[in-house]
Amino acid sequence: MKIAIPVKGRLREPAIGLLHDAGFGPEEPGERALAFRCRSAPVEVLLVRAADIPEYVQDGVVDCGITGADLARERGARVSTLLRLGFGSCALEAAVPEEASMRSLCELAGARIATAYPRLTTELLAERTIPFELVEVTGSVEITPRLGLADAIVDLVSSGNTLRTNGLRSIGVLFSSQAVLIGAEDPAEGALRLAPVLASVVDGKAARYLMMNAPHSALAAISSVVPGSRSPSVLPLAEPGMVAVHAVVPGAEVWRLLPRLRAAGASDILLLPIERMLA
Ligand code: AMP
Question: Of all protein residues, whose CA lies closest to atom 3 belonging to ligand 1?
Answer without folding.
Answer: 9
